[in-house]
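User: Modeling request: complex.
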Amino acid sequence: MRIALAQINSVVGGITENTRRIRLAIERARDADAQLVVFPELAVIGYPPRDLLLKPAVIDSCVRAVDELAAACTDIAAIIGYPCPTGLAKGMPLYNAAALCHHGRVTHRYAKSLLPTYDVFDEHRYFEPGPRTDVADLSGCPLGVSICEDLWNDQEVMPRQLYHGDPIEDLSRAGARVLINCSASPFVVGKHDFRLRLLQSAAQRNKIPVVFCNQVGGNDELVFDGNSCVIDSDGRVLAHAKDFQEDLLIADVPIDGQAPPASSRVESPKTGIESAYHALVLGLRDYCGKCGFKSTLLGLSGGIDSAVTAALTVAALGPQQVRGVAMPSRYSSEGSLTDAAELAQRLGIRFQTIPIDDAHGALERMLTPHFEGLPPDATEENIQARIRGVILMALSNKFGSLLVSTGNKSELAVGYCTLYGDMAGGLAILSDVPKTLVFELAKWINDSPDSPLRQQFGSPVIPDSSITKPPSAELRPDQTDQDSLPPYELLDQIIERYVEREQSSQQIITEVPGVDPATVARVIRLIDLNEYKRKQAAPGLKITGRAFGFGRRMPIAQQYDSSFTPNPSSNANSNSPR
Amino acid sequence: MRIALAQINSVVGGITENTRRIRLAIERARDADAQLVVFPELAVIGYPPRDLLLKPAVIDSCVRAVDELAAACTDIAAIIGYPCPTGLAKGMPLYNAAALCHHGRVTHRYAKSLLPTYDVFDEHRYFEPGPRTDVADLSGCPLGVSICEDLWNDQEVMPRQLYHGDPIEDLSRAGARVLINCSASPFVVGKHDFRLRLLQSAAQRNKIPVVFCNQVGGNDELVFDGNSCVIDSDGRVLAHAKDFQEDLLIADVPIDGQAPPASSRVESPKTGIESAYHALVLGLRDYCGKCGFKSTLLGLSGGIDSAVTAALTVAALGPQQVRGVAMPSRYSSEGSLTDAAELAQRLGIRFQTIPIDDAHGALERMLTPHFEGLPPDATEENIQARIRGVILMALSNKFGSLLVSTGNKSELAVGYCTLYGDMAGGLAILSDVPKTLVFELAKWINDSPDSPLRQQFGSPVIPDSSITKPPSAELRPDQTDQDSLPPYELLDQIIERYVEREQSSQQIITEVPGVDPATVARVIRLIDLNEYKRKQAAPGLKITGRAFGFGRRMPIAQQYDSSFTPNPSSNANSNSPR
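Assistant: Request completed. Predicted assembly structure:
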């Protein structure tokens, strides 16, 4: 059976635009003589639609859009994801559904059975789990249609089965000859390998081919990598779409041990640091495009974070759309300004220098009388960062440009950043990139033969000194990050264990060779205490298993004390340290 | 049966402190000869614990705490809410449980069956629904233990049953002689009336008494009002605890048509504007206390929002803990400064004046050359608001005081506020209070005989002119809010219908008499466009059915166009307006 996988980039809520893309893909699939074209999960409304799903008018539009699309499916069939009312008097009011459209109408409807409600997913908030359904019939061939998470309860591959049923097995037992999975599975570095194992396990255990169609594109914090593919019943990759861009993959899928088809297109998915780079570029490009921003700006400190951010921004939008602003203070080294200027020159972006001294001096004169003789502390450092925030936001407002903020995950974790200062911005593209990975990214961008910027400019775009000099916030004389923080190699390990793996301090101390227990305790305390800053952080782009933001929901006013012991006598005076 | 309802104020994550409070309440209940003492939902860890529940070490601490508490329950029984592992190989790993502790051990464990996953609730993110359980036996009396939402699927009271089962009915059928409900049901104006109807319906339909023990106190965005009570099998309120404070309510609950007991204490719950006032005061007081802030500060503009915020802050913490800062600009009227000073004087708070002109002038000189001859616009207004943000945050940093921000829900809805400017702060106590309700609050605070501030100061604390003058941001000459916005009476109606009720523009136009369709479209467009500001807003205190913040999760980069029509020909050029 010739099947087209329409890996489209849906706009959340953009029902008109998404419907146009779906219609176009149907036509192209028809032109390629496909019998069936498959779309991603919730393709009509884009994933994740979040609380747009609570608006009855939105659901009504989606249902009408699918009806209209079905009418166009006469000589080809299509499977289209959309939210639809359950029609039941009780329970959550919607299904996360996929319609099989054929003969000009919806001939079958599948409702997602397993509803992910963890990390960035909130599906129980909107949807009723689908009842077990029959296979769909397409001109005599029984199709097993499933949606995304339905595939993710595999007893052999998943470390824990979060659900009690296995819809894939059910569909296979019900006689499906091919499994279709409509997905919106967001990018995480290394995840596609895991996904392939899942797909292969489903194919091999049930001895049927699997067709996996995934959304592509950035929607707020999430980037979808595409990587749609077809796995044959022996678990081999038969066809594979591109990653990080729209694609229409045509594959002849052998049903019931048909002869293997003429070879299909098999693209190689990017991995590791290269995949992270492309995810960040796509996430930024789509955030701008889908919000309607034509240009961006960012502060250039001469350091590595802003250099990598600038490079990614140029990769996403082109140098004409990027404005770099250096804002030196009395504490800035000369090297910082020249590194910033050099970066801007190499990238070919607009560059402006706005020294902050005048405003800095004015605010000092205004505030010092009110500080009641208290000694200088982080307050004075924050003022400088916030003046820069005011300047960048003024330029953002005046030119209608998106302010891209430059902070990394390590800083955000321990609060080594200023709320309303360097944290200001519309999108924080490095906020899920640990500092050690920022260094790797910088080197990859500069030196890898696969680096698009290296290819485009023919030489390294990031000045070497931005990579090699010791990181510093330059908010007081001779400051370096390492005055306040443990070395980044160690810090990032602790963050990864505490934030991504939910390890306790005890576990971290046991498992990280030679780590100082006081350092672990201090880092954990900083992570907990700075929840209030992250609550007001700009949205970031998720590339790890656990990003700050939507997928990590910590209380602010909380007093969990990992040293808790329930023995009352020993705790008589032990109020929590916060 | 004599039952004690221990309406405690749990600290999220504060297992040591919560365990201490629970132990104390057990002792007091024993002293009052109660046979049973009932605690709120998840009392050991506080509600909502959010992603603390993902930390195995946290769960382990909770389980150990309950074991330890159970050991203390020898001559009295206690029902204590806590998270506990399911012990099952599949499914979500935790139950939202309540342990019946008696004879020095846990004798029965109930797991919550209905898991709210809407608005501010995320329980499917953590918990496995409990299997139907047997009734618990307490010295021969069958108790029907349930947890919060288990009560909220009543077919007669709920507009829609979100769940398929009714655990209350199940427990009653299984022979329960008294229903116990451990709750953490957050405050919304008017909600307790609805809760009482639910409790009465449960009692009457099942002909058994209902014991409802609710958490009290503020945890981040949520305020819990307490209002624990006992309803007899005829649906009458037999005993009622205080609202907005800890309480231990002792009630003799008649089992199986026993003679009605000697009368118990029945407190009157506060309603309407008075309840909103107390919720805001408690929410702020607990946010400060649980975060460890001893003092607060806020900007005083002379307007009504900052006046009401200052009054609430004084009510929460006392005048000694509040610093008011006036930051006049060249556009401030003289009245603004005198109103601010008058307010501070009446409330007895510290008052400082820091004119922003020097920084304003400096930033103008720094930025104007970079504005490329573009005309003045909102940029220049935002700069002033952001300078004030820098000043307030500097004082907050220097004195370790919580910056309380003063914006209201109407502004936040339509983006009539400056990100990193007047939106800066640690808690936005009016961010769920529409402007029309801010006016009502001001009048109630000034004039009501029930107003604690009126009682304390003996005269109105808010200057009359702050209430009566036309609201203005004073960011350009002769500006008033009504230059940019529809009248607040109308604006608040549209916001309430669009945000709280999820009505479409068409519905609003139809149902609001005489409203201009263009006004509705403009307000809705402003609400949608300003999602990016709200994403970075300070946490607020929820008092309505739908607050901005945790319970409203809208995409930022989205293009829903309420004028969508799926007809392709008419949409050829209709890209979304954003």
